[in-house]
């Protein structure tokens, strides 16, 4: 079974255990913090070491998670991942949890690639247009790629709108060649 499928199952289970609304954002932030604290090279080596007793590993993990804080279900969840030998999936689970929480709360992340930087007014106009198309609250992530020549390529989830000049020139070339 792929790690993506396993991670999605854990993320969905944690989402179902978590409360609704703003507490989902709190859990998503806490998961990111826990992944940063637990999945670092030193901690990973410590937890993987066969020279350290399991009780000591559990106690150190418990202390690290206490410093991270977060909702009450976070620490037992991460300790469960450790017992099931799935702790290396925590970063992926955190990412999938955030996506599932956004979906549940009617939010979407839009990745927009443009040829030149956009003004704040243009970004706001684009965000509103994408919100109108998707029916969700949208957060824009804008990247600049001069190879587009002009226009924009927008990705929301698995949907891509390619309005770049490069895309239109390629389509014209294909039409001319097929003739």
Give the gist of this structure.
This protein is an alpha+beta fold and 179 residues long. It is built from eight helices and four strands, in the order ααααααβαβββα.
Characterise the protein shown here.
Strands 2-1-3-4 form a four-stranded mixed sheet, with helices on both faces. It is elongated and about 70 Å long. The protein is built from eight helices and four strands; from the N terminus they run ααααααβαβββα. The chain is an alpha+beta fold. α2 (22-38) packs across α4 and α2 packs antiparallel against α6.
Radius of gyration: 21 Å
Largest sheet: 4 strands, mixed
Q: How many domain regions? A: 2
Distance between the termini: 47 Å
Poorly predicted regions: none
Query: What overall geometry do the principal axes of the alpha carbons give?
Result: elongated
- What is the percent of helical residues? 55-70%
How much beta, percentage-wise?
5-15%
CATH fold annotation of the largest domain = Peroxidase, domain 1
Helices, strands, pairings?
Blueprint: H1 3-17, H2 22-38, H3 41-48, H4 54-68, H5 74-83, H6 90-104, E1 107-114, H7 120-134, E2 137-144, E3 152-156, E4 159-162, H8 165-178
Helix pairs in contact: 1-6, 2-4, 2-6, 4-5
């Amino acid at each position: 079974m792929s790690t993506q499928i396993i991670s999605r199952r854990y993320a969905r289970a944690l989402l179902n255990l978590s409360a609704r609304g703003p507490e989902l954002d709190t859990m998503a932030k806490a998961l990111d913090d826990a992944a940063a604290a637990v999945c670092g090279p030193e901690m990973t080596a410590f937890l993987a070491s066969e020279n350290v007793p399991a009780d000591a590993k559990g106690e150190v993990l418990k202390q690290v998670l206490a410093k991270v804080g977060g909702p009450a279900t976070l620490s037992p969840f991460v300790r469960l991942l450790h017992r099931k030998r799935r702790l290396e999936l925590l970063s992926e689970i955190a990412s999938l949890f955030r996506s599932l929480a956004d979906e549940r709360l009617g939010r979407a992340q839009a990745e927009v690639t443009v040829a030149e930087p956009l003004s704040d007014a243009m970004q706001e106009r684009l965000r509103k247009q994408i919100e109108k198309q998707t029916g969700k609250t949208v957060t824009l992530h804008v990247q600049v790629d001069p190879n587009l020549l002009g226009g924009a390529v927008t990705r929301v989830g698995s949907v891509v709108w390619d309005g770049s000049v490069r895309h239109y020139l390629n389509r014209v070339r294909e039409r001319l060649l097929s003739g």
